[in-house]
Predict the structure.
Amino acid sequence: MTDRLITHLRHVDLAVPDFDAQLAFYTDTWGLRTEHTDSGLAFLAAEGSPEQYAVRLRRAADKRIDLLAFGVATRADVDVIAERLGADGVRLITEPGPLHTPGGGYGFRFFDNEGRTVEVSADVAVRKHRTIEEGESIPVRLSHVVINSADPEATRAFYEKHLGFALSDTLLHPHLGKMMWFMRVNAWHHSVAIARGPHPSLHHASFEMRGIDEYLRGTGRVLRAGVEKIWGPGRHTAGNNTFSYFLDPSGNTMEYTTELELIDEDTWHPHLYDFTQPEIADQWGIANQMNEFVAQRSFNDPDKGLYLAPPV
């Protein structure tokens, strides 16, 4: 295994032009909680997570991923990663130092190979959280983020080389080749996945529910609220997790999931799955068919924030 200092995914930060509608969606419908607010900013936490927030919304003229944030164990690890990135010619946005976001901490930001802003941090204060009770259909935590890449092989190589990600599984199309790579930084099957797409953008963000019952209750609640469902409910083969995909008001795809696979990293061997086989996309066989419509929605709009660091 590569020398890995990243321990987990912290949060995904989104810039949105329809801030008020997005805030209402994520709190009133999706089940996140507003923990902190600032001028044009909202920090939204998952009730079951010790992370200060799972999603940050920022009011902006353009829709974009503001940043992906990952945790490490110590300040020394932050410094080591920053030093290694700098030595390899990766463009740093900030040098390691105090963070001025909820929970504080110590970290820095840099651009990945396609210009997304990435943050690495340590010593962020633990949020007071609670156990999600039986029947509560709200997210426990941010499970994973999937990004679209115009050069997914290079993006995979970047995250493996610089952040110590490991490949768990790959999805293959018999005529189009390899299409999605599931990447991990701990025993969860994936914290990030990289999808082949026409441009860099957010493919989807996924939120872990307490269990199957809570996942289905949540899916039903969002459906009753009139939110457009893209795909699901079903259960993937890669990761063995359930899925229900919806569109937020900005057209970003959001997923409810549960039972993401925990693997033995010492014995795991990546699979190559042909996702045109029905049981690969959905073991249960009850989800709507994966087709061009579903795929096109997942491509999302081109990210307008590449090599442009967010103002906060």
